[in-house]
């Protein structure tokens, strides 16, 4: 099921960004990405997506990225290293997996990621995990 057809689409008050290679849904604290079928996700696509995303949020916003892998596509797992070094506003990522092949790919990608990357088996699990990230918990000192 596409993110747009889920209960979260309206619940999270998302804004849709369509690029030539995928749909990206922008919400408070997170971006949900759905690359199109058959794409090869390389650095140019990641950079384009993240530059577009960054331009639509306030400066100093911290986000999590959820890769909602409903379509089959290829990705260079080493992109995670460059991604994290270049775009520090993404504090954590989740990969929603629906089959064994995607699980294996996500496991390889996890080895390249320095920041928190969780493999999830449902959109519910991924969104719940993001909502509870310690990076989004604010603490204040008592007066």
Give a quick rundown of the structure.
By secondary structure, this protein is α/β, with parallel strands linked by helices. It contains five helices and eight strands, in the order αββββαββαβαβα. The termini are far apart.
What key phrases describe this protein's structure?
single chain, 143 residues, alpha/beta, Transcription Regulator spoIIAA, six-stranded mixed beta sheet, two-stranded parallel ribbon, 27% strand, disordered C terminus
Please state the CA-atom Rg, rounded to the nearest Å: 15 Å
- Given as residue ranges, the uncertain stretches (5+ residues, pLDDT < 50) are 139-143
Largest sheet: 6 strands, mixed
**Name of the level-1 CATH class:** Alpha Beta
Strand order, sheet with most strands: 1-2-3-5-7-8
Approximate helicity band: 25-40%
- CATH architecture assignment: 2-Layer Sandwich
First and last CA, distance: 48 Å
Q: What is the CATH fold-level name?
A: Transcription Regulator spoIIAA
Per DSSP, what share of the residues sits in E-state strands of 2 or more residues?
25-35%
Compute the average pLDDT: 89
């Amino acid at each position: 099921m596409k993110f747009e057809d889920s209960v979260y689409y309206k619940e999270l008050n998302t804004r849709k960004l369509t690029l030539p290679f995928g749909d990206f849904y922008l919400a408070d604290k997170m971006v949900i990405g759905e690359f199109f079928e058959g794409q090869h996700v390389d650095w140019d696509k990641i950079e384009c997506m993240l530059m577009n995303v960054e331009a639509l949020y306030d400066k100093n916003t911290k986000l999590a990225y959820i890769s909602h892998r409903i379509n089959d596509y290829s990705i260079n797992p080493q992109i995670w290293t460059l991604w994290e070094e270049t775009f520090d506003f993404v504090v954590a990522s989740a990969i929603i997996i629906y089959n064994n092949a995607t699980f294996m790919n996500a496991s390889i990608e996890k080895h390249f990621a320095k920041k928190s990357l969780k493999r999830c088996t449902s959109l519910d699990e991924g969104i719940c995990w993001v909502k509870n990230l310690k990076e989004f918990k604010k603490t204040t000192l008592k007066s």
